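Collaboration report, partner site 2.

Our partner group contributed sequences for two proteins of shared interest, and the home lab folded both. The records are reproduced in the order in which they were received, starting with the first partner submission.
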Amino acid sequence: MNSNLAKVLHPMCGAPLLAHVLAVLGETGVARVLVVVGHQRDRVRAAFPQPGIEWVVQAEQRGTGHAIQMAGPALAGFTGNLLVVCGDTPLLRADTLHALLDHHAASGAAVTVLSTRVPDASGYGRIVREAHGGRVAIVEERDATPAQKRIDEINSGIYAFRYPVLEAVLGRLTPGNAQGEYYLTDTLSLIQDAGHPAEVLCAEDWRSLLGINTPDQLAEAERIHARRQGGLGPEPGRR
């Protein structure tokens, strides 16, 4: 973002990115909200003094899987479904999350990944589906083969997990990848290896899942949000 401000605190249409995500979770009706914070965590917490947020500290940023591991103590004894979302997706819609949770419940899957197809998949993890056997995997851009990089279906970073199944495999994550991080995406293989089914739900509105990584992407998100508020529909994106 070319800024020393934590990304989730960058404003979009007058509110921090994280505020938009928290508002959507409120519309979705989740029972508890845990926010994992690391960089500038005191500043992020100070920006959201309202009750109802449970803060989880990830002192070292060692990947998405590690972030969920840090939430383990707060989730001790939890046996329901865990919805994982990103703090930098301010265009996310409640109906998209409802569709994910409904599909997850109806399918009986242990994990359901929310995907979408984008005009330019650069930088995203790709959804890789086996031709036979029904297994699915997510391959990060840095670890993808040239053929996998041509896939246009990408991981949104949003998941629904049966938490006890996820909890059982989190300790088996390893940092054997280009980033040396603990990827949450690797839990898909571990869950399927344990005999549990995995599902992918492909969302039609890819713009609603856009993550913010650059000032240009933030400006694009502001335009889309403004057009939504004006009832004009989303502006064609550059990605």
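Second partner submission, folded after the first:
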Amino acid sequence: MSILFFFKKLIGFFLEPFGMVSALFALGLYFLYVNKTTRAKKFLLASFSLLFLFSYPPFSNFLVKNLENQYQKYDYKTPIEYIHVLGNGHNTDPLQPISSHLNDTETKRVLEGIIIHKQTPSSKIIFTGYSSETNTTNAKMNAILASALGVSEESMIVNGKPVDTREEAEFTKTIVGENPFVLVTSATHIPRAMMIFRSYGMNPIAAPTNFYKEEFRGYLVKPEARYFFLSTVAVHEYLGMVLAIIRSNI
């Protein structure tokens, strides 16, 4: 992992919900410790307010829906040569079956890629994603699951070097050029991914999967940890889109 990538992740942590809430709470405790009660109350109130807001279902769903409603599901009718499935997360625990090695997000991405591949004659699936903290790349783990589900080795292109969406785009550009191809990723991630791939002069066709949005259930609902997670996913994507816009204008 490069030092630049590490600092990008570190800064991103404090701009996302958990980092914001933790930082405000820590500052509140500090001011309480040094007997600056008024400041302590302000920071502690801010931390609990954000914790409530990001855990509140209507607000979380609002953040998610604004991302997921931007692209429709893939129609499976377009004759296409390449399908790029973006990486996410995995483990290599030998005590777990293949079906459990990929996280839920990545499993849905791989399954969607395989479904499109099965319905598109002569197509190939591109798997990308680095090893993170394991000894096997995410791209390789994706290929193992795809192989177990009947995808031939000749139908897969596997590259475990890219560490983020931008590097994934750079790699796939060398294969597809400006030709249309299917881009498979999470529905929350697809707006940012499409933005990045298009910035390289590419022509991706969106194939979103792993949707989180829900039907509106009213405002009298209690905060839940699941919605804090969904808010975190959404905020991560909004920050990534801002960064992508800044980088494209520099």
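Feedback sent to the partner group on the second submission included the following. The longest strand covers residues 180-186. The chain has ten helices and five strands.
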